[in-house]
Amino acid sequence: MARGVFFNPYDPNTLIQHTFQAVMRRGDSIELEILTLWVLKEELATIGVGNFHTVNCVTENDIRQEQGWPLRGAYSTRNMDYRR
Asked: Residue 71 gets which letter from DSSP?
């Protein structure tokens, strides 16, 4: 069985709003924030967030889970830490 990210009927280059909780580091302080960012569906599917992949897809979070690493809940940008 072939594995891969399933986009149909979605266009992988479509930007969507993705809302998530992030741990923000500001100097020595750490704060939780709810953020909404515009993200490519392709990025969310690759990570394994949202309904943009199938159960047969191998996602980044599948690999992270196999290795015992924390799962990612969002597509990262600078100055953000998504560790749980």
From this structure: P
Q: Each residue of 60-73: pLDDT tens digit?
A: 999 999 999 988 87
Whole-angstrom CA distances from 25 to 19, 20, 22, 36, 73 are 18, 16, 10, 17, 17
Q: How far apart are the first and last CA of the chain?
A: 33
Distances (CA, A) of 18 to 15, 25, 26, 54: 9, 20, 22, 19
- pLDDT for 1: 42
Statement: residue 84 has pLDDT above 80:
no
For 41, the enclosing helix (H) or strand (E) is helix 41-47
